Amino acid sequence: AGFRGLSVVSDRIVWVSGTNNSVYRTTDGGTSWSDLTITHKETFTNATGTYPVILDFRDIEAFSAQVAVAMAAGDGSLNQTSVWYTEDGGKRWRKSRTPKNPIFYDSLAWENKHHGLLLQDPANATDGSMGLLETHDGGKSWREVTTTGLEAQGQAAFAASGTCIAFVAGRWYIVTGGSPNPSRVFRSSNGRSWKDANTSLVGDPNVELGYSGYGMNSVAFRDSRNGLVVGGSFSTGVPASKNNVAYTRNGGVTWTSSNSALEYRSAVSWLPGKSKLAVAGGQTGTNLTRDGGVTWEGLTDEHRNEFFAVQCIKGGVCWASGRKGAVGRI
After folding, report:
1. What keywords does the record list, in alphabetical order (predicted)?
2. CATH of the domain at 94
């Protein structure tokens, strides 16, 4: 399985999720892992018959060794889009109540263990808005949120690492891309009224939405002022660019490209307690910044082509997850 979902609860408790209905958890710092694969009876029907659905859990948020919420991304018309939760350490998973006719789910973010937002692609990317769902009961039920200022303008989000929406210091952030226009970072204090700012990463003008691999994939803030976004093109052979990483010092009002050219990166995470340290990871490598995103240096190439997601915790430990069941500590 490939693991795009990653949630680090502590130095001993880590959850990962991904393809083939897969969810795994360690409670001993990675020495052993429990297979908590979600078994279900979901099906879809087309002209040739009825078939079982294989879910791709591209995001997971865990609050302890017992409680977690997993999000499946995919084609809503094929019943591939859903949210599931457990309160007994994965022994039993329940499907959350969500609005009918879902679009493509991208990512979850949480203010606390009760209140969270779920980002989904727009129903109409040309003149519609990014979709938001909200929970106040820890993910058991979700309802649509009416927003202003979250217009898609031909863009969507990337379900690459479960980090295209974030909540830090009383503010929500969303990053979008995938069109010939610059990727944008939206910010909101209430999840309803949004303002946006452009980054310098633009898409390919020769391809339409949904086929452009260009865009910012991940957003992370250390506090109310210092933030990072990373992305690029997930297509192979695309050269590194300084525009694949950007930083802000004013809470996302303006963004500045890095001085270091990086290849595509799908996730970024600050190291808590380390004022200017952050790690960015992707399918072609992992990088560290010591100055809040201005410059970056490469880390070990031992697992160069494996990681999709990265998350750092207090104590200077970062976890990463990715292709072919790869999970590691950085």
Report:
1. Hydrolase
2. 2.130.10.10
Q: How is residue 94 written in tokens?
A: 């329940």
Kindly state the average pLDDT of the residues 88-93. 98
Quick check: 212 pLDDT over 70?
A: no
What single string gives the DSSP state of each residue in 112-127? Answer: SSS-EEEEE--SSTTT
16-37 per-residue burial string, b: 16 or more CB within 10 A, e: under 16: bbbbebbbbbbbeeeeebeebb
Structural domain range at position 281: 3-329
d(CA 275, CA 290): 9
- How many Å apart are CA 174 and CA 61, to the nearest integer? 17
How many domains would you assign to the chain?
Answer: 1
Whether 125 shows a pLDDT value over 70: the answer reads: no
- 251 with 187: CB under 8 angstroms? yes
Tokens 């379900």 belong to residue: 159
